[in-house]
Specification:
This protein is of the alpha/beta class. The chain has a single domain, classed as Rossmann fold. It has 4 helices and 3 strands, in the order βαβαβαα.
């Protein structure tokens, strides 16, 4: 399940953790979070919602340079092999 909070998408205002937690609690499927994720703290907060969080979509924060890709991957314990390319 990809959950996107459209009110926060691209706004760099932080994720809606309470709504995301509600999705995690009621979904039998892995969840990918999207919308408002801006910082390493945001990524850690999303990850802390439980093992059902399978990933996060981060767009504008990377594009605007507010979030460093290798640092973000390291913060969540993932291997950063190559930064995404903007086209």
């Amino acid at each position: 399940v990809i959950y996107t909070d459209i009110a926060r998408d691209g706004m760099l205002s932080g994720p809606n953790l309470s709504a995301l937690k509600g999705i995690v609690d009621c979904s039998p499927f892995p969840v990918i979070a999207s919308g408002g994720i801006t910082s390493l703290e945001d990524l850690r907060a999303v990850q802390s919602l439980g093992p059902q969080i399978e990933g996060a979509i981060v767009g504008k924060a990377l594009y605007d340079g507010k979030l460093d890709y290798p640092a973000a991957m390291a913060a969540i314990g993932a291997q950063a092999t190559e930064a995404p390319h903007a086209n």
